[in-house]
Each structure stands twice: as structure tokens, then as C-alpha cells.
Amino acid sequence: MYADERREHIYSYIKSHKRATVRQLSDYLSVTEATVRSDLRRLESENKLTRTHGGAKVTENISSKLNFSYRLTQKHTEKYKISKHALKKIKPQQCIMIDASSTTYELAKLLADTTMELTIITNGLENAVLLKENPHLTVLVVGGFVSEDSNAITGNIDSQILEMYHIDYFFLSANGLTLQNGLTDFFITRSAIKETNGTRK
């Protein structure tokens, strides 16, 4: 593993866990503690984290990078390509669900111009505002709390809406993917909608 890849893994781990010790990171990456300390110094110099006694923690500016407006500016080309591929899966008269991520917002932008008759369920306020202008689309918004960082509706969603419709495709993104835990998210409230639909039969 190259040094920049290793530091990216360290950065992602600390973002996800909020803090980590040198020993934890050493075990996680199977490298020496001296290597971890060197990487932490480099990441701190880039203002990506704050070193602590025996480890490191997230800095305040990291949370701002989770903001929806910021994420819209990141990896736009990749998100557009993913959304173009997803669009090819959708057929007229289907019911689809899209979450409130910056990646699926690119899909919503493509769907805003579609001539297909579709029913779209979303927990994304930005998605709903964009899609409601298309007369070919029936747009439903699930209930819950509005998240300030992502303009998403989160928490205990209205499961009755999900029971009323057969969802052909659910397009979502996640902050992590592991073999043990599957898709994961930084915030438990945002995970609720994904878990609710993901466990339906």
C-alpha cells in the first residue's frame, strides 16, 4: 500500500470513529506505530485531523465537509457517471426510491428531464423540489425530521408509505461498506430509512 493510500485509510477511519489510538490504527493497517505517527503528523499538517496523546481525533472542519452543499462539489464526474448508469436501469411505470445523498442528487437531475411516467419516493428535500417540476413524475416525500447537514428527512420514517408501494429500485449511497456490517452511515438517523427499505421482503 502506498503512503498516500494508507493516509487516506487513516483519515477515513478517524472520520468514521471520531477518534483513534496509534495502536488501533497500527493494528487496522498492519503497519508499525512509528509509521502511523508519521502519517498522523502529515495529516495534521494538512488540517485533516488533530493529534492527541496516543492518537488523533477529527477536527471541527471535518464535520463541515459532511455538509450537503460541500459534497455536491466533490467527485462530480464520478457521481454523474454512476447516475447515468443507474438511469439505464429504470423503466417507465416503475416506482423507485432515492435517498438524500449528493450522488443520488445527480440521478434526480437526470430524472428531472425524463419523459418516463414514474413514481419516486425520496427523503431528500432537494430531490423533491427538483423533481416536482416534471409532470411525468409522481413524487412522494417520507416523513421525519429535517437534517441540517444534508437537507434529508431522517429518523422514524412513515413506514405506511413504503408499505403502500412496490419499489422496483432503491438508489442510495453510504459512507462505508464492509463485509461484516454491509452499508454504514455516519449518522444513525440517516441509516433508518436505508435500513427500513433494505429489510423489506
UniProtKB/TrEMBL annotation:
Domain of life: Bacteria
Span of domain HTH deoR-type: 3-58
InterPro entries noted in UniProt: Carb_Metab_HTH_regulators, DeoR-like_C, DeoR_HTH, NagB/RpiA_transferase-like, WH-like_DNA-bd_sf, WH_DNA-bd_sf
UniProt entry keywords in alphabetical sequence: Lactose metabolism, Transcription, Transcription regulation
Example GO biological process: lactose metabolic process
Annotated transmembrane regions: none
Gene Ontology molecular function: DNA-binding transcription factor activity
Gene: glcR_2
Coiled coil: none
Gene3D superfamilies the UniProt entry points to: Winged helix-like DNA-binding domain superfamily/Winged helix DNA-binding domain
Name the UniProt record assigns to this protein: Transcriptional regulator of sugar metabolism
Lineage: Bacteria, Bacillati, Bacillota, Bacilli, Bacillales
